Amino acid sequence: MSEKTPTSQPVPLVTNSGPHLTRRQVALAILALATGGFAIGVTEFAIMGLQREIVADLGVSLGQGGMLVTAYALGVVVGAPILSLGGAKRERRGYALLLLVLFIAAHLFSFLAPNFETLVVSRFLSGLPHGAFFATAALMAAQMAGPAKRGRAIAVVLSGLAIANLTGVPAVTWVGQAFGWRWMFAVVAILGAMTMLALLIYAPRIHPPQGASVRGELRALANQRLWVGIGLAIIGFSGMFAIYTYLTHVAVEVTGFSDSFLPWVVLIFGSGMVTGTFLGGYFSDKSVLGTVLVAMSLVALFMTLFGLLAHIPWLMLLLLFLVGCSASTLGPSMQTHLIDTAPKAPQLAASFHHSAFNAANALGAVAGALVIADREGDWLRAPAYVGAAAAVIGVLITLYAIMLTKRAGQKV
């Protein structure tokens, strides 16, 4: 089916998913995929909480320690499209298991790393399967749930990432601080092995569409809607990271919270992220780009209010929850939109969501740093205004994406 063929329904993602599944079997299979998302979320963010222990043990500077975060993000950006292309023609459960093998091996490499340079390499390798696994998992979940509930199914898979920030990261950070930072990698490897076992037990074999090929996936790159969607994802998520990167500084220096209260600040933001992920899945099943438009508009509003009212404690916490909620609503809707832009290359299109997410992480942090520079106090409100401006640009891009989608005769 070409993009110009009118249709009111999403294009099918696969043609053969095996035997009919009961509702319970679908739920267990999707939860198994979410467990993998949880493991990935833990390794992506727990490294930040253990940097002090790692740099002290390996004798490097804090600045060098930041390379462990950068190396992982670079692995995601590079690995997502390349490994997704490798899975274009493969049965999807089998490919998800292969990606998990790579994920586990990289973490065992990290656990045994004899020096900092080796650890940086292992972090890059750990990031390689990240985007391809989420892309494969999203397509599996969407097929098992069916067109009417695919947004909610994708949201459950992505919720593993959000819930990891809420529960897994603090727990694994404590393990690393109590027993040694290397054990963080061992715990993540165990979570990866648990995911493999759960997929083998509960997930069905799911085959790609007939005629799927690497060449066909690459042809999808010549697609204006896909690139508009990628740009939208980068701009949309960069606003959240502009504020998230400097959140603890705002909480202490602008709002006046004590350092001991910071875990509650992070918890409230994480709660908003989890809530938004599920809301995004629910409303995406009603209207994908409609959800993006509303969420992006709310991000602009709530970030502006956050910048203006961050000095009032209860309003700061309320707006922080709303920022996390509205920004995370974009997750399932953007993932679904990218799949819809390239129906003949869903694997590659889905992977670009995670490359864009990590690019947004870097862009948001840099944009926030530029407006703060070395200034303190009220200047710490500036990243919120940067995030609001990015969201306004995101609204304009969303309107353009809606126009292109309607022009292609597809459901908005």
TrEMBL record:
GO MF terms, alphabetically ordered: transmembrane transporter activity
Membrane topology of the entry: Multi-pass membrane protein
Top-level lineage group: Bacteria
CDD domains: MFS_NepI_like
Keywords: Cell membrane, Membrane, Transmembrane, Transmembrane helix
SUPFAM superfamilies: MFS general substrate transporter (SSF103473)
InterPro entries xrefs: MFS, MFS_dom, MFS_Efflux_Transporters, MFS_trans_sf
Domain annotation Major facilitator superfamily (MFS) profile: ranges: 29-406
GO cellular component, one term: plasma membrane
PROSITE patterns in the cross-refs: MFS
Transmembrane regions: 26-50, 62-83, 95-114, 120-141, 153-175, 181-205, 226-249, 261-281, 288-308, 314-334, 355-373, 385-404
Compartment annotation: Cell membrane
Pfam families, alphabetized: MFS_1 (PF07690)
Keyword Transmembrane helix in annotation: yes
Matching PANTHER family: CHLORAMPHENICOL EFFLUX PUMP RV0191 (PTHR43124:SF3), PURINE EFFLUX PUMP PBUE (PTHR43124)
Name this polypeptide is given: MFS transporter
